[in-house]
Amino acid sequence: MKKTLFVTLCIFCLVAFSSSAFAAKGWRAGKKTYKSVCMSCHKRGGEAQRLKLNQWSKAKWTKYFAEEKKGKHADPWGQLTDEEKDNLLKYFHKYAKDDHTRLGCG
Ligand code: HEC
């Protein structure tokens, strides 16, 4: 009887843990894209300034992501899949001016 309870508890913990890891996966993938794609220019000493993710609100980032990209951005943005852009936006939202969830454990 005790063993069943223990096993149930283990499964519960496993599910709870993996689902929170899954939720975090989006912005983490976005962070990687940011580093590999955006930071090729947006870095100290690069051809563009480092981006401050908290310079804009979530709404502004969403708007910016929806705009068509031209010039310098046509190329890097063009190579991103919709999923990558989605995750990138999640990462930007996480550190946007009006997001405070990062103060919690998320
Ligand atoms: C080929 C180089 C290059 C790459 C790659 C690049 N950018 Fe830029 N970006 C620029 C330049 C140049 C500017 C304008 C000048 C500056 O900020 O120094 C700029 C400006 C910006 C701005 C400010 C726009 C504004 O209107 O104020 C944002 C936001 C931005 N980039 C986001 C991104 C994101 C997100 C990525 C990755 C998907 C990215 N950039 C990749 C070159 C690049």
UniProtKB/TrEMBL annotation:
UniProt keyword terms in alphabetical order: Heme, Iron, Metal-binding, Signal
Judging by the UniProt lineage, the source's domain of life is Bacteria
Q: Where is the signal peptide?
A: 1-23
Give the matching InterPro entries: Cyt_c-like_dom (IPR009056), Cyt_c-like_dom_sf (IPR036909)
Where does the Cytochrome c domain start and stop, copy by copy? 27-91
Question: Could you tell me one molecular function GO term of this UniProt entry?
Answer: metal ion binding
Pfam families recorded: Cytochrome_CBB3
What this protein is called in its record is Cytochrome c domain-containing protein
Q: Which organism is it from?
A: Desulfuromonas acetoxidans (strain DSM 684 / 11070)
